[in-house]
Amino acid sequence: METCPACKAPFKGGQTCHRCKSDLRPLIAVAERAVACLAAARAAFGQNDYQTACGLACQSLALKRSQEAESLCRYAGFLAGRQRTIRLAPADSKGNRAARKQSPVTSPG
Question: What is the pTM of this model?
Fold first, then answer.
C-alpha cells in the first residue's frame, strides 16, 4: 500500500493514517496475506508442486496484483496442466482447419 485509500496521504507504515486517522489494519493484513501466499507459492514451485503453487499464486494475485504473482500463477498453471485447451474444428482432406463458429449463449427458462 502506497497511499491511504481514504485520503490518498502517503503511507508511512503505521496502523492508522497519519492524516485522516483511518484504521489501515485490515488492508495491511490483506497485503501481508498476499506476501505469505506468494512465498508459499514460491516454495511449492521449488518442490515441483505446480498445482499448489498455481493455487497459492492465484490467491496472492486476488489479494494484491503483482507481476511476480501473475507470472508464477501462469507458469505454474501451465506446468500443472491447467493450460486452456483450444478447440479445433475438424480438418478437411488437405489438413486445413476451418474456423469453428461460436454458438450464442442463451439463458435458461
Answer: 0.67
